[in-house]
Amino acid sequence: MMTGIRVSVPTAVLAALTSAARQGILIRSGRALEQLAGVDAVVFDKTGTLTRGQPTIVAVEALEDEMPPEEVLALAATVEQRLTHPVAEAVVRYARERGVSPGRRRGWRYAIGLGVRATVEGKTVLVGSDRLLKQEGIGLHGLPQPADGGGSRIYVATDGRVCGAMTYLDPPRPESEQVVAALSSSFGAEVHLLTGDQSRTALAVADSLGIDRENTHAELFPEDKAAVVRGLRAAGKTVAFVGDGVNDLPALAYADISVSFGGATDVARETADVVLMDDDLRGLPHAITAGRHALRLIHQNIGIVAGTNLAALGLAVAGSLGPVAAAVIHNGSTILAGANGLRPLAEPVLARGDGVRGVDRQDGP
């Protein structure tokens, strides 16, 4: 009997991992597959996960009369150059599209979740969120704010004074709303959104995707994201965290299942238990389904092997079953359970864009 279990259980796990890989989903281990089966809370980082991660600058404003918008843009591009953060790349790209070349900076320092500080032409320049300016003792009272849904904003300050602001948009991925709906309705998972962005922007994204406002957490530092994950785990949830950046590493480490993308930062991709190689969120429901289906197959295989052999044992004790027949039944149950474990390999490979993968097919044994 133990031989049948030793053969059929790894067969089911390997078949599920192989089937997921054919769908563009790398699940690193059998443990990760098992954890996926129990996921009942999914926590998303916003930028680059629920959104495209390709911000676009839509406006540059000068907040001091003596500094035109072109100079504000040049200062920001100078400070943000050669940084890999999506917003920094958007600033530099926007500047180059308008013929503004970054200058030279010195002594720059990047603060995760806040922004950048550097020296440009002898001036101390800050480019980042309102929290960065507040931390430096620079007030923002009376400054204009974009309307709700009008984008996020970063500020430019020189020598302790705000001299400009830039508004950018980072629209949701086209599949995000569909995936959030599937996770909530088909899988019964509690969906959370985490971001370091302002509450106004976070709530606008959450409303557009159907995420409850009470599950939307804004203005978070990396350690705050990890605290949300720890809190859900302390409440008895099995938590999957989906993120793609350096800022997400603490939360990825604390989650029961960490999920990232093939195009994520190297460290996030290598840390993750599950990697969506196609950079498509629709792989997440399929990964959860694969875990649940594999667990069902394992239970079925144990039942096939144990039930058949126990029945044969009873017949043998009663003298109704000879040694040859018992051997045939034992080996036959092993073959049957092994074949049952290979069922995931029969699943068709879905083309990208074929709906939410893992929800459209029957989620049963």
Description:
This is Lead, cadmium, zinc and mercury transporting ATPase Copper-translocating P-type ATPase. It comes from uncultured Solirubrobacterales bacterium. GO terms for molecular function: ATP binding; ATP hydrolysis activity; ATPase-coupled monoatomic cation transmembrane transporter activity; metal ion binding. Belongs to the cation transport ATPase (P-type) (TC 3.A.3) family. Type IB subfamily. The chain has 365 residues and is an alpha/beta fold. The chain has two domains: 1-54 and 172-365, HAD superfamily/HAD-like (Rossmann fold, 3-Layer(aba) Sandwich); 56-169, Calcium-transporting ATPase, cytoplasmic domain N. It is built from 13 helices and 13 strands. The protein has a seven-stranded mixed sheet, with helices on both faces. Helix 12 (283-317) runs antiparallel to helix 13. The model is unreliable at 360-365 (pLDDT under 50).
